[in-house]
Design brief:
alpha/beta, Immunoglobulin-like, 21% helix, globular
Length: 420
């Protein structure tokens, strides 16, 4: 059995940043495993710009952003093993994987970082009526076709869902000569960033149909059209509101799912609010020595935040290996009104550094306040002109605020909306 101090599963933006974080903290016995041949993960196919504004204070494409981390990983001499499929992780941090070059491997790690990312929600999870014909793709698959394979999925396009990948593909397909008839969103608000709505839809005259959904897909040998209808407050189609768009392609951008099959094998407790691991402020899961970060933990809006989070996880993993990270008494962090997908779910009573909480608003709220409180004691309060599900909210709690809590068993994060 091979042995390593820190084993990182995934060579995308989270895995690369975690490796760098661990190395810069002092770790030297690090191994990164990735199932693809080249490092970079999903960023390899994200040729649009908009990356790196927080991390590098400049605008980069996805490959450019990934290259900066890959270059640093290689400069540090961190071993990265590609074309390697991880089959299982045990609660004792034994990782079983297989590859063409190394065959079947069993690797005992002192700390494991879960950086597997996420996958797109497929059509099968939507129960969309209509024919099961070719021409229906997830937006990420279409992005890979166009940007990596040089293939064009179709010329007449409808997009279901307004996630960021779908919005970006609306622009990409238009630039490649396709006609994007509409972007159809079930909810009364978009799930993507505001800047992507403006730059990818508004700038190209592509309509965004809020509170609409696809109720039928036509075609046998290939998609020939989709029927769209408006939905009521219960998200049910309203009869008489149907309209049909002739098209040869339907792209799905209806949500992302963290890749936590390996996490479950390791006995990691998952948190329903994020579909990722339940973690404390160090990003350690319920299994000591196993950490989670990036989109496998919770779906981020910006890759810059993935990198920042993953570097922290890498540093904490090394602290754990060194015996410097102990599981002290912790406080539960609960979600109040308007708060969803909250991370972390546990915080130490006496943390070693300021605690960052991240969440997504459940709806669009205007003239709101973000509040963190422990019973009657208010630890944090900030005004916000507008909060939307497409953009994550960051809250930083100072160490002294948490250390001052004596008997509190939980914190509550909530949104308060002005009645004016």
């Amino acid at each position: 059995m091979d042995r390593v101090d820190i084993l990182i599963i995934g060579g995308g933006p989270a895995g690369l940043a975690a490796a760098i974080g661990a190395y810069e903290a002092g770790a030297r016995d690090i191994l990164v495993l990735d199932r693809e041949q080249e490092l970079g993960g999903i960023l390899k196919q994200c040729i649009h710009n908009g990356f790196g504004l927080h991390t590098f204070q400049e605008e980069l494409t996805g490959p450019e952003y990934a290259h900066r981390f890959i270059k640093k990983v290689r400069a540090y001499g961190i071993p990265c093993q590609g074309e390697t499929m991880v089959l299982s992780i045990s609660p004792k941090k034994v990782v079983t994987c297989v590859s063409h070059d190394h065959g079947l491997q069993h690797i005992q790690a002192k700390a494991v970082l879960l950086c597997m990312g996420c996958r797109e929600r497929p059509r099968g999870s939507l129960a969309t009526p209509g024919e099961r014909c070719p021409g229906v793709y997830t937006a990420g698959t279409a992005q890979r076709f166009t940007n990596l394979e040089g293939l064009m999925p179709g010329k007449e396009v409808v997009i279901l869902g307004s996630g960021d990948i779908g919005l970006i593909m609306a622009r990409r397909m238009t630039l490649l000569g396709a006609k994007v008839h509409a972007c159809v969103e079930l909810m009364p608000y978009s799930s993507g960033l505001k800047r992507n709505i403006v730059q990818c839809l508004d700038d190209y005259g592509i309509p965004l149909l809020l509170s609409h959904t696809v109720v039928d897909i036509q075609g046998r040998d290939h998609v020939t059209g989709v029927t769209v209808a408006k939905v009521d407050t219960n998200l049910q189609p309203i009869p008489g509101t149907e309209q049909t768009f002739p098209c040869d392609t339907l792209l799905l951008s209806v949500g992302l799912i963290p890749e936590n099959e390996l996490s479950k094998m390791a006995g990691v407790t998952l948190y329903p609010g994020t579909s990722g691991a339940l973690v404390d402020e160090t990003l350690m899961t319920s299994v000591p020595g196993i950490f989670a970060c990036g989109n496998v933990l919770h779906v981020h809006d910006l890759v810059d935040f993935v990198s920042e989070e993953a570097e922290t996880a890498g540093k904490n993993a090394w602290a754990y290996v060194q015996g410097e990270l102990t599981q002290a008494e912790r406080i539960i962090v609960e979600t109040g009104f308007g708060v969803g997908a909250l991370v972390p779910q546990l915080v130490s009573r006496e943390p070693l550094q300021p605690v960052r909480l991240m969440f997504r608003p459940r709806n669009v709220y205007r003239n709101a306040r973000i509040i963190v409180e422990a019973g009657e004691q208010r630890l944090y309060e900030k005004k916000a002109m507008i909060l939307a599900p497409g953009e994550m909210v960051n809250v930083v709690l100072p160490v002294e605020k948490l250390s001052a809590l004596k008997n509190a068993e939980s914190l509550t994060v909530r949104i308060e909306v002005s009645q004016a």
